[in-house]
Structures are given as structure tokens and as C-alpha cells.
Amino acid sequence: MGTYYKSLSVFLSIISLISISQSINNGGVTVDLFHRDSPLSPSHDPSKTRFELVRNAIDRSFAHKSSLLLTSLKKTSESVDATHEAPLTDGGGEYLIDYQIGTPPVRQLSIADTGSDLLWIQCQPCTSCYKQDYPPFDPTASKSYRPISCQSNQCSILDNTACGTDNNVCQYKVGYGDTSYSQGDLAAETVTLGSTAFPNFVFGCGYNNDGTFRPYGSGILGLGNGAVSIVNQQRSSLHGRFSYCLTPHDSNATSKISFGNDAVVTGPNVLSTPLVSKDPPTFYYLTLEGLSVGEQRFEYKSSSSSIKQEYEEGNIIIDSGTTLTFVPSELYDGIESSLKNSIDATPVEDQQGTFKLCYQSDGEFNSPPITAHFKGADLVLPQRSIFVEVEKGQVCLALVLSQDLAIFGNLHQEGYLIGYDLVNKQLNFLQTDCIKLH
Predict the structure, then answer these.
(1) Which residues are catalytic?
(2) Is the omega angle on the peptide bond into residue 125 within 30 degrees of 0, that is, cis?
């Protein structure tokens, strides 16, 4: 841990020396965030039924969780390949972000990923690139493109970099939990979000990229807590802050993501919980003390603790790329039992075997309230996402059992403005009608 945070400090110092701070507008920027299944998303498939889209998102959620676990194990083991940067499953990701790169600026549509740090895109000339709906970025056409040398401190901050044998350019390689990968040159370029330009932004110009990536997007824009993510690279101008407000997956309104001063989440109703520093540092760790159904509370017990009721700090990850919420058996079993005793509806079996608790529903289905007790913040889960309609007339509990990694998924983040404050190591929640932010 100490080595990483020392490296982060060095990297941020380098960035502050070579970057020109931007103070366009009020020092903040807000742009659209598209869920891949939204009718407004370029990845939307109108041939799929609502229930097919829901089932696909659920399948991706389980696969993504497995990739998160694999990445966590690889990053915390000294004996494994360090190229493994982050999880990725069914390469379209869950959310897409629209931005520009280069001078003159060229539009890009990338996966916005809180489980990844490096921004990389496909570049010409491609040695081996996956199919993309628009031409890969041509660095020779940009006046602001600058390759990063092998001797640069920016090159040394990344895992698994190498030196180009004929041009002294730093070369990167990142791999993902689903075997997708990207290789290419590390470079500095101007990245533009909305009307705000960030010069000398370190990114990956990928010439060899393959895996499960989809043609409507190019690469990944990392929102993680690592040194090369956009929030940490631009810490001086963005003040280490970003936030998002997620609309329902099938909404005709886009979600919003904000950076810098636009990402400040304040007010008397704000709930705050600490961000916990752990390995791998990319992920955002929270402390979940327990869950409640109505007034009945169930504690999150640490298996490593000598005190039976004591919870472990940083025992759950908040992740925008995972749809469902995964919790351990001591929480899940209590929640399921309490709901069974409280809900007056006809139980049904999930024919696909994914969910353990499902009910027949001929219309609006109301569940007893469920509250997630994070350290310092009691978060009431959105009623519409406690149970999800997976087939016509059938709803299932969107909290599922996990024997290893706990994840707070995006379904239960809907209806909240969620602010990440990396300087103060704090996550803020404010109940919000995200559709009305337009």
C-alpha cells in the first residue's frame, strides 16, 4: 500500500508540472452517461425485448463479479502477471461516455468504468484491432499528441510497461478479467469533456486490441482510484471529485456524470460514508455494517474477527459496472427469510435458476423497505429496484448471494446523486430524481 500511494503522489506532482490548469465555467463539467440498454444509447438493440435486456444485464452482472474477484486476487498476489488491470465483461460495459481527444478534437465513445484506471482508445495504424463503427484515432493528425519516453516517470508509474526497441516510446499493456486486452504506446494528448479541455492527459494509444469489445465504442475511460484515472490525473483542476446520477436502465433520459466543482454533493439530507484504502487501489471500498428489512436488522459479521459482531473495514465494493448487489450468506439468508415472512404474494420459481426469491406479480409490486447500513450512512434502497421484473408477471429479489466478493451494484444506486471525494476519502449520497436533472 505504501509504495502505491508514494507513487501516486509522485505521479500527481509530475502531472501538475506539465499540465495547464483549466478553469472553464465554474471549474466543473457535466456530460451525459448512457446505459448500454437505454433507448438513447448507440448500443441499444431494438430487436431485444425488455425481459431479454434484463436477463442479459443479470448474466453480465455475474460474469463481471467473477472478473472483479479475479482481478482482486491477481492484484493482491505477487506471483501473478501484473498486466491484469481490471474486470471487463461482454466488452460493451454498462455505461458509455461521449468525449473528444486531440487537436482538432475527434469524438470518442468509450466505456466509463469505475473498475479501471487507464484511458485508452484504438489508434491507427492498427496491428490488430477489433471492429469499430468509426475510424480509430489517428495520432499523426493531431497537433497536441506527444509520445511518452521510456525514461519518463509517467512510464514507470504503470504496471507492465516496456520500451519500444526502435523509437524509445513507452509501451503499455493492460489485460482484463474476460481475457480482453489492449497494447500500444503511452502518450500525452488533449482530452475534452463537454467544453472543458485537459491538456497533457496521459492515455494509451492502442494498436493491438482484442477480446469482447463491441463496435460502437473505442476503449475505456477509467474512473477508478488509481494514479492514471482521469480524476487523479486532473486532481488539481477537478479537486479529486466526480459524481453521477443514474436513471433507470430503460429510461428515455440519460444519466449524468460530473467532475470538479459540478460534482460537489451537499445539503442537509446528504449521507456520507468513508472510502477505505485497500488493494487493489483501483476499486472503491466501503464499509457495510448490515442490512435491514423494515425494523429487522442483520449484521455483516467478519469471518476474520475475534469479535463475533465486528465488521471488517472496506468489506464491499461500489461498482457502476455491476447491475446486481452481491452480499454474503449471513446477510442474504436473513434478508430472504424476513422478506418471506413479510410479503403476501405467491412465490414462484425462477426457471433459469438465477434467483432464489421470486414472486408472481400482476402489477405494481411493493416490498418492505430495505436499508443498507454503511458506516455513517443508512441508505434506503430504491423501491423499484429491490425486486426486478425478469419475466412477464414475475419479479425477483435483486440482492443475491455471494460466497466471496460483496458488491453494491448500479440498480441500487439509481435515484441517488453519488459523489466521490477522493481528497477527503468520502462517498456522499443524496436522494435525487435523476431524470429531473435534465
Answers:
(1) 113, 319
(2) yes
